[in-house]
Amino acid sequence: MAIQRPKGTQDHLPDGSPKLRLDISARAFRHVTDTARTVLERGGAAFIATPIFEEAELVKRGVGGSTDIVRKEMFMVHYFGDHGGYVLRPEGTAGIVRAFIENGLKQLPSPLKLWTHGPMFRAENVQKGRLRQFHQVDYEVLGSADPLVDAEAIWLMVQVVEALGLTGVGVKLGSIGDPEDRDTYNAYLRELFTPHAERLSADSQDRLTRNPMRILDSKSKEDQAIIAELAVKPMLDFLGTDAEAHFAAVRAYLDAWGVAYEVDPSIVRGLDYYRRTAWELHHAHIGAKSALGGGGRYDGLAAQLGGQETPGIGWAFGVERILLAMEQEGLTLPAPDGPVVYLAALDAGQVPSAAQAALSLRSVMRAEFGLKAQKPGNAFREAERRGARYAGLIGSDEAAAGTVAVKNLATGEQVSVKVEALADALTH
Ligand code: AMP
């Protein structure tokens, strides 16, 4: 049997592939990352790329040892004789913050805005929109705790999805306060849940001792029923004065800029280094549990990774989920550009001339050529199939005269053009 791709992965296919859908179209992927690049680089972000595998310890500290990602979903990397301590990255932030510290990037103008895109890996239960290798676009800002930076980050995220043409997108905004606010909240949750501990899932019983806030994030229906039954107060009710003022400032900027959002008190990020602003990007037609993206402030992360205290904030969205949302909205990509010209030889002896003419055009345009001699009718059909605007034929007469017979495939007009004048004739 032919070998198939691993479960939870996808091939990104070229245009014209028989089973093409938007979420596996290589061109659609590039459209998303190109759009993100335009928007984010206009906002001052520089591109960064970090390794796809990192020390497991980085991910543990960067994502949090109590998260499902670290406990259950890590892909370990093994090679002969290694120390076994590498994992495929499940997200982008930890690697970027590590690179910021390791490469002394704090010397660059601050705050430093960075963006990247690439594959992420999580050994999850595979469903529609939930893969084991998926792709994210990531934006991170290091070096400022100003609420203006939070608002700008959210604005940029919305700009990217709007530039892609999506309309059914909403921001759910919350705040998880400062560490001391979360201590108070966790104490409240512990007191509230402890009498019901034995009804909680095994995972949530564990969370009750380690980090009660994470119970609120539980995927278990029984846990969610207990949460509803206990009428748990949201984290937002526990914000201290500073976090409250920060949250109000972020909202005021978003209001002033006309960014629509909904305050969602249920947003939780239960890790020590997360601070204050947290949000998710949702889509009307993609289940409530499947966000298009999410972001948050992580002022404690750089120190957690062994660097100097550096405030930071970032977001990521899933490219596959964005493409699924685009498909739901019936958005399509503009038709792909074909070559400007397809050059064909009428006899085998002229194939090298057709090839050479195509190569010399490539400094100014996309030009292709046929590998074998073709009859004119076949050459025109082949040119049309490739989406070319012109077909150029070289037979023995043309070869002798140093010309190409050029046909405009839209108008049918045919002219003889000197090889040296070809580039000019095809661009005017
Ligand atoms: P997270 O890093 O968990 O906040 O995820 C950010 C975004 O990445 C999510 O909102 C999804 O769009 C996407 N994402 C996360 N996990 C997966 C997955 N297993 N498959 C596809 N997309 C994912």
- Please tell me the CATH architecture of the largest domain by its name: 2-Layer Sandwich
Question: What is the quaternary state of this protein?
Answer: single chain
Helix percentage: 25-40%
Say what the CATH topology of the largest domain is: BirA Bifunctional Protein, domain 2
Cα gyration radius (Å): 28 Å
Structural class: alpha+beta
CATH class of the largest domain: Alpha Beta
Which small-molecule species are bound to the chains here? adenosine monophosphate
Spatial order of strands in the largest sheet:
1-5-6-11-10-9-7-8
Relevant CATH superfamily of the largest domain: Bira Bifunctional Protein, Domain 2
How many domains make up the 3D coordinates? 2
The mean pLDDT is 93
What is the 3D shape?
elongated
**Relative strand content:** 15-25%
Number of strands: 16
Distance between the termini: 53 Å
Number of helices: 15
Main pleated sheet: 8 strands, mixed
Could you characterize the architecture of this molecule?
With 428 residues, the chain is α+β, with helices and mostly antiparallel strands. It folds into two domains: 246 residues, 2-Layer Sandwich (BirA Bifunctional Protein, domain 2); 86 residues, 3-Layer(aba) Sandwich (Rossmann fold). It is built from 15 helices and 16 strands. An eight-stranded mixed beta sheet has the order 1-5-6-11-10-9-7-8, sandwiched between helices. The chain has a five-stranded mixed beta sheet with strand order 13-12-14-15-16, sandwiched between helices. Helix 2 packs across helix 4 and helix 5 runs parallel beside helix 9. The two termini are 53 Å apart. 40% of the residues are buried. The site of adenosine monophosphate has 17 residues, from strand 6, strand 10, strand 11 and helix 11. Its EC number is 6.1.1.21. One of its GO terms (cellular component) is cytoplasm. This is Histidine--tRNA ligase. It catalyses: tRNA(His) + L-histidine + ATP = L-histidyl-tRNA(His) + AMP + diphosphate + H(+).
